[in-house]
Amino acid sequence: MSEFESATTEGPRTVTAPRAKGEPRFPGGPAADPAGSHHERRIRSFQPRRSRVTPGQADALQRLWPTWGLDVDGLRGLDLEEMFDGLPVVLEIGFGMGEATAQMAAADPGTGILAVDVHTPGQGNLLGLADRMGLSNVRVANGDAIILLREMLAADALDGLRVYFPDPWPKKRHHKRRLIQPEFLTLAARRMKPGAVLHCATDWEPYADQMLEVLTAHPDFENTRADGGFAPRPPFRPLTRFEGQGLDKGHAVHDLLFRRAGS
Ligand SMILES: C[S@@+](CC[C@H](N)C(=O)[O-])C[C@H]1O[C@@H](n2cnc3c(N)ncnc32)[C@H](O)[C@@H]1O
After folding, report:
1. Which has more pLDDT, 134 or 50?
2. How far is CA 185 from CA 203, 219, 238, in A?
3. Ligand 1 centroid, distance to 179 Cα (angstroms)
4. Domain covering 67-260: architecture
């Protein structure tokens, strides 16, 4: 019986052999801890969670990962030009279950989407969606976006960056885990082409205010809004799953579109 079956079917639990460190949860699939050898004590913007993977997601991970997936190991540079056949490339950080990512890729086949998250079920879900929709402009990266940006992408590599509904970390003592901070923006700006747009969205008002404040103050970004404020949701961004949950709770959603300054 596979590890998946033992975790999800009724009846006596089967004890499976422990995996060696770094051995994929699914044969040929994403690494268990892609940057496990990366020595750093940085505070992470995500919490590792071991979530249930459906049979469909497991199948997609095993079948499609070798072709469309990559691990964020921090050890090699990525040639986006080759990976996406010369298409302009947008990085999406934290795609969750990937429904919005797949929709955006289908609506804009002339743009490559490098989608990164640490969430295994979401990786399987996005691979499955891309496969069923016949998309060839999506790649799924497994690991920490900071390591991807810092170690694996060249300067001016990105034509855009999307961060939709990053974990809000509402407790004050967790604010340091929030992704959108000055140091992150400095790193992101170096990997973006001048004129490329960083598009953020959140349903957590205090985080929206923080985003607007740090983006407005950052010398490498300029607001695409003449009034210096939030933007309405652009028609190309579909509603995301996390956004739907926020709307159900009565939250207001804010979009921010900032251009990388310079030439
Ligand atoms: C609140 S969810 C939003 C998911 C999706 N964008 C949506 O709107 O439904 C945030 C996602 O960001 C991912 N995440 C947070 N920090 C990350 C990082 N440093 N690198 C990659 N993914 C990250 C989490 O695993 C999670 O799936």
Report:
1. 134
2. 20, 10, 24
3. 10
4. 3-Layer(aba) Sandwich (3.40)
Choosing from 167, 174, 251 the residue with most ligand 1 atoms within 8 A of its CB, the one to mutate for a pocket test is 167
Annotation marks residue 167 as catalytic: yes
Q: 190: helix, coil or strand?
A: helix
Crossing angle of helices 120-132 and 99-107, in 10° steps, is: 30
73-110 per-position pLDDT tens digit: 999 999 999 999 999 999 999 999 999 999 999 999 99
- Using a 6 Å CB cutoff, which residues line ligand 1? 45-46, 93-96, 116-119, 122, 144-146, 164-167, 179, 240-243
Mark residue 258 as left, alpha or beta (left: phi above 0; alpha: psi -120 to 50; beta: remaining): beta
Which two structure tokens, joined as six digits, stand for 224?
Answer: 């695409």
Sign of CA dihedral 187, 141, 122, 86: positive
- Cα separation, 39 vs 141, in Å, equals 20
Q: How far apart, in whole angstroms, are the C-alpha atoms of residue 241 and residue 201? A: 13
Q: How far is the CA of 36 from the centre of ligand 1 (A)?
A: 19
Report the percentage of the chain scoring pLDDT > 70: 89
What residues does each domain of the chain span?
Answer: 67-260
Q: Which atom of ligand 1 is nearest to the CA of 167?
A: 1
Instruction: Point out which residues pair with 250 in neighbouring strands.
Output: none
**Distance, CA of 39 to chain centre:** 22
121 CA to centre of ligand 1 in angstroms: 12
- Residue-level pLDDT at 14: 37
E strand or H helix that includes residue 195: strand 192-202
